[in-house]
Amino acid sequence: MAWKVTPTYRTWSHMKSRCLDVNNDTYYRYGGRGITLDPRWTIFKNFLADMGERPAGTRIERVNNEKGYSKENCRWATRKEQGNNTRQNVRITYRGQRLTVAQIAELTGLSWNTIYYRLNVGLDAETIVSRKWKKKTPRTHCAKGHELVAPNLLASREGRRRCRTCSQSRDRQYKATIRKGKYERLRLKN
Ligand SMILES: [Zn+2]
Known about the structure:
- By secondary structure, this protein is of the alpha+beta class.
- The chain has helices spanning 7-20, 44-51, 79-83, 101-108, 112-120, 125-130, 164-189, and strands at 58-62, 74-78, 91-94, 97-100, 153-155, 161-163.
């Protein structure tokens, strides 16, 4: 059965992607750190049966932030209710200051990925920050040998250095795939 893309469906699809799709930008904060998806919930029908339609202005919340997505651990919460319970709200006490992951990233030049990783393995703030110079020197070329200098240098939100040439080429390929799909569907119809 094909489902109409309702707000509930969109929530379900994003949730599934965060947990299972390694290419999702936020995978490292979900599937990547062991946040699971109840196998029943890989099927939208089951998710809808358990949770009901998403009330306007709410998001899906895990009651226990360390546990996965399941009927037992999820509820629809308003943004305000949820704000107190998300990963974004992690504060790290560093030399008497309560800092967010974003602030630590800015202070040290470490990527969000690295900071979350170090937090998850249980390092304290001082260690997280002091290890920053053990980071390998930034790469000067991408995997395909393009030089990583402006204007060929892109920085992702998490502070990764990316190659503009490669990223644009991936983009073009992706769009071409979509165009091809549309064309194929049209051809089948006629
Ligand atoms: Zn490249």
